[in-house]
C-alpha cells in the first residue's frame, strides 16, 4: 500500500480540517484550510486514497514541510 | 426687525445659494467613495475618510480648506511637510516581512521589472504635455503604492494630489480585477502550472537586521532624494526585526498608522473641491494611471517568463505580476491564479518575495526619478 504524506507548503495556521480519518478522498479534494500572510488557501490531496492519519488540528500553527495528513 | 429676520434666514440659505454643479458632483463622488469603502470593501481605511473629506470640502462656506480651517491645518502640517506619508512608511516597514525576498534575493529583479511601466507612463505623460514633475507623479501611480504616490505628488505636484491619490488607491483595490486577464494573456497553461517548491525560513536574524540598515545606506547613496522614503520604511522594518523595541513597532503599525491614515485620508479628500478637481486633466491622470499599472504587470510577467527560461523552468511567471508594489494584494493574486490552474500549486511565499521587492522597487523608482530631476536642475 503506497503512503502519501501531505506537507505544509509554508508556515501558517490551520483554520479548518475538512476530512476525518478513514475518509476516502480524490486527487485535488480539499483536506485543510491553511492561513498564511492573512490569506486562506486550501491544501488539497496530492493523490486519491484513504485518510490514514491527520497530524494537525484546527488552530494549530505549522511550519513549512510539516506533515499534516497521511493518505494511503 | 423684519429685515433682521430676513437677513438671518438668508444666512441659513447661504449654503444652498452658493452650491454649484461641481460641488454637487463631487459630493456625489465622495458618496461613491464611501459606498465603495463601506459596502464593497474597497480600501475602506482610505476610501471612507477620503470620501468624507470630499463631501466636507464641497459644502460651500464651510471654510475647512481656507486659511486656518481645520483640514487646511492638517494638510499644511502633515501633507506639505511630508510627515503623514513618511509616518505611514514607518508602519509599512513594521508590517513587512522581507524574509521571502531574502530567501530568494533574485526575486528583487521582479520588483525592479514591475516598475518599468512607471517610466513608460512618465514618457507618455510628457508626450501629452504634462510638466516633468506632473509626469513623475502620474507615472508613480503605476507603482500601486499609495504612500509613495502621495509623497511624490504632495511635494512636486500638489495640484494633482487628490487625483493621483484616489487613482493610486482605486487601482490598488482593483488589482485582483486588473491583473488576472493580463497574467493569463501573457502566459501559457504550462507556465501557469509550474510549481515552485517550499520556501523555508533559513535567513538568520542577523541578516534580517542588517538588511534594512544596508539597504538604507546603499539605496540612499544611489538616489539621495529617496532617503526619506527608504529610510522610514527600513526604520520600521529594523524595529520589527531587531525585536528590541516591540512597543515602538506595535505603535508604528497600529496607533500611529491608524491616526495618520485617518488624517491623511481626510486631507486628501479635502483636496477634491469640485472646481479644482473636475477638470479634463483629472480624467487623463486616471487614464494614465491605469495604463501604468497594466504596463507594470506586463513588464513583471514578461520578466518572470525570462527568469523561467534562465532558471530552466523553476520560476512560475505568474509571480512576476507581484513585482508591482500593491502589498500584499498582488502576491495574493499570484497565489489565487496559480492555484486556479494547478490545485497543488502554492506560490504565495514566492510572490511575497517579488511583492516586497516591488515595494523597494517603487520607492527606488520614485527616488531615482526625483534624483535625476534634481540633477537636471528641475527641483
Features:
heterodimer, A: 72 residues, mainly beta, OB fold (Dihydrolipoamide Acetyltransferase, E2P), 8 strands, globular, B: 20 helices
Strand content of chain A: over 45%
Enter the CATH topology name of chain A. OB fold (Dihydrolipoamide Acetyltransferase, E2P)
Strands ordered across the widest β-sheet of chain A: 1-8-6-3
Q: Which range best describes the helical content of chain B: under 10%, 10-25%, 25-40%, 40-55%, 55-70% or over 70%?
A: over 70%
The percent range for strand residues of chain B is: under 5%
State the secondary-structure class of chain B. mainly alpha
How far is it from the N-terminal to the C-terminal residue of chain A, by CA?
7 Å
Taking all Cα atoms into account, the compactness measure Rg of chain A is 11 Å
Oligomer: heterodimer
- The number of helical segments of chain B is 20
Q: Give the second-level CATH assignment, the architecture of chain A.
A: Beta Barrel
Instruction: Please outline the major beta sheet of chain B.
Output: none
CATH superfamily placement of chain A: RNA polymerase II/Efflux pump adaptor protein, barrel-sandwich hybrid domain
Helix content of chain A: under 10%
Radius of gyration of chain B: 22 Å
Structural category of chain A: mainly beta
Count of distinct strands of chain A = 8
Order of secondary-structure elements of chain A: EEEEEEEE
Helical element count of chain A?
0
Separation, N- and C-terminal Cα atoms of chain B: 60 Å
Which regions of chain B have little confidence, pLDDT < 50, spanning 5+ residues?
A: none
Q: Can you describe what's shown?
A:
The complex is a heterodimer of chains A (72) and B (379). Chain A has 72 residues and is mainly β. Chain A has one domain (4-71): RNA polymerase II/Efflux pump adaptor protein, barrel-sandwich hybrid domain (OB fold (Dihydrolipoamide Acetyltransferase, E2P), Beta Barrel), CATH 2.40.50.100. In chain A, 0% of the residues lie in helices and 53% in strands. Chain A contains no helices and eight strands. A four-stranded antiparallel sheet of chain A has the order 1-8-6-3, with no helix packed on it. In chain A, β4 (30-36) and β5 (39-44) form a beta hairpin. The radius of gyration of chain A is 11 Å and the shape is globular. By secondary structure, chain B is mainly alpha-helical. The mean pLDDT of chain B is 90. In chain B, 73% of the residues lie in helices and 0% in strands. Chain B is built from 20 helices and no strands. Chain B has one domain (19-375). Chain A binds chain B through residues 7-11, 28, 36-39, 41-42, 44, 46, 63-65, and chain B through 97, 198-201, 328, 331-332, 335, 339, 343-344, 346, 348-349, 352.
